[in-house]
């Protein structure tokens, strides 16, 4: 988790890597003092005052802040926006678990250390029993969500997923299936040779309750050609989310930065997300993290891991720019809990999921309940009230007596759908 | 009055909105903050405002310059009779893992890094009452014999107290002999929190706050510079921290001998106080800022990355810190290294982290002479 967090973690080949990535656009942080003095400082101040007055900033202004403001100014602005959106000092999190049914993938992203080619050593496909068991453990711990994603398996089609999701919904109606990111939905549409709308419709009918935001990386073609040439294009990623929203489902949005993109391309990514959100309003939250280059297949292509000052710069700018996103999630998995606490003052209002899976795998000495307590404790010690939420960022916590987000009603609807589906399935069984 | 710039106006406006307008006015005018001001800065939820005020002072003093050095640590013994409850390093004489280096072993540590551009050895240890006065002189001489140009920053006030005890003479007479043997300056450790309540509860066998300050005074009078520290994030109160900072500030008014203030983050792991959670990164950033704002007469504030973790130290450069300490590479890692030396890698990494924070890295020697501007 902290492999990028210490200078001693770098290896001698760092120089070689830096040389190889030298061809890629270099970006250097601006001198901090210049973000507050001289002509650049004046422009930063002008934009900043607009943010404090609640005005939306333009992509050009965002780029100016990114390239000229100091990290503390960005943090203060992001903190202001977070507080305007969430006046109560609440930081939410969800009790959930990652389920990755397969690591088999034909998309070959060079930044991914998780996938295996079909037939490659280490490939796996979980059985239904294994998945159900993981879901059961999550439900028993009071979980509310299964984050189900995996590789782009060449032989697993929509009906396999529909069966799985319907089964899980019937057995564990309290667990929302936050399932199948846009690239996976696109992959299924291509396997099925039919429009993605139909794939979404069928999965929704089976009980898929919301869609994760993975696979966005950087929504700029130049970047995608370098880091993920076989993955869906920018327009397609956005269009799949548009169709998810049109189908009445919510999704989240992400950004993976700190690889080959320029600062302008970071802003371009945020611009595309903000425009779609203006159009559909379907995104629940935004999360970003910096690429973790250690041990990925094409490591030599990537620069060293972005340092936290850059991470916080992008994190804070995202909160300021994405004024139509209610929630911004931190990434304690990539940053570590200590820096995640800092991000709560750099625009984040959500701690993400408990990811019971991670803890189950890395078991020794750390019980799953402690991980929930660990998150609660981390939020409290950062000066906020921890509250559990559902997949739609509705607060579902007995300690909460204030207003909640409309998400709760949506969850109720999905739960009702699933219970209905379970009832009719049972009725069918009896009839047979 | 100095012409107020746009950035100062915004700083004051932000502070006013947080109820810290009067404090901001003082900071901008370069006036000393009171303990009540300090309390308000500790208690406000507006960490970014506190950081911006501290950053203002930091940039007034140092601009974007951020210092580091290439150094090594030698902890000559872990045997200690002070039994401080917050310490995970100490061992009793016959306890497993207890060690005490001979002067030759100390020399070997220095020899191990002769190929590296090390400018400073930081040498501190436990209070091992069996060590004779000559031992301390011998380890200083051993270091200088191997590497005459190296600066020896050694012996906290607590160790100096012990050295004078075994020397059976006043510290005033001991210090010139230590200097003669090679002592170049004195680190800031062992101050903990001066309040007697905290001392009784956590380190009652160690010298008192008053004694620590008295020894620091003598060190400065002997012509040596020292650092000063505060161990925060355990059982101390805000008022006790402010009292500590105030006592450092008053001695500094008198001697001017402190060159750097280093807030030390309490780490509960493996100590007797494992039930105390220790400071969060947000607490650590605030402590850096408070140090910068209260200690208006100390030139430097250090974010000691070894205790804070590099990410927090990097961020601290925006909250009042202008120094991140050194490369501190252990010789055992050195022996396992390949073509690029770990000191070089570590140095390059510190430079990168400082640059990413929007600062200008400057390699310094112990007394803040510029070795190279990276």
List keywords for this structure.
heterodimer, A: 432 residues, alpha/beta, seven-stranded parallel β-sheet, 16 helices, 11% strand, disordered N terminus, B: 374 residues, four-stranded mixed β-sheet, four-stranded parallel β-sheet, 11 strands
Could you write a compact summary of the structure shown?
The complex is a heterodimer of chains A (432) and B (374). With 432 residues, chain A is α/β, with parallel strands linked by helices.
Strand content of chain B is: 5-15%
| Cross-sheet strand order for the largest sheet of chain A | 2-3-4-5-6-7-8
| pLDDT < 50 stretches of chain B | 331-339
Strand order of the largest sheet of chain B: 9-1-10-11
Please outline the major beta sheet of chain A.
7 strands, parallel
Low confidence ranges of chain A:
1-23, 359-369
Q: Structural class, from helix and strand content of chain A?
A: alpha/beta
| Biggest interface, CB < 8 A | A-B, 47 and 48 residues
* Average pLDDT figure of chain A: 86
How many helices of chain A? The count is 16
Care to count the β-strands of chain B?
11
In whole angstroms, the N-to-C terminal distance of chain B is 36 Å
